[in-house]
Design goal:
194 residues; alpha+beta; three-stranded antiparallel beta sheet; 5 helices; elongated
Length: 194
Amino acid sequence: MILYAKIFSLPRFVLRKININRNCRISCSSQIKKDIADSDKKEWRVIYRLPMVRWIASFHKLKFYQAGLTGIAAPISFALETSSQLPPQTTIIVLSLGFTGLITLSIASFLCQNVIGFIYLNSDNQYLRFSYVDFWGKRNDSTHNYEEVSNINNAILNLYQIVQMNNSKSSTFKLMHRFGEITDPASFSSIFGD
């Protein structure tokens, strides 16, 4: 009863303000999220996409499974070998197979790192956003100025092209032009050439 009396003893404009703010907070938060999503979609448009980028990311993540399987299998094989359940030298075979597979996957992942999955161009045609897969299979976004793209070189066996930036040598990406889809050919050719 005291709470009821305190609430209704407030001036009427304060009560309206409380209700408006409460309702606005609920409805505005979803509206703001929609506006942010709409503006983000309008601001950046896709000019290139690589459909098999998910397969490449999954391939990079195989290293974790290989390391985990080797880490689990080695102690188990050692325990079974010491209890004479498995023949001698089984632990060495398990470890050599596990580490050989891990090294093979790491070398193959090293060759496939920084593969571009998507290239976005903003509405002002000034900035490029490269979405690429790193060594660990995670998606990273890198935004660069339009003029920073210095050159494109062909790599081994023409599987991909190397995109280099002017600002640093560490910003090199791999563009699989043959397997990718160009969604905006005019913008793509103005940036990268034919």
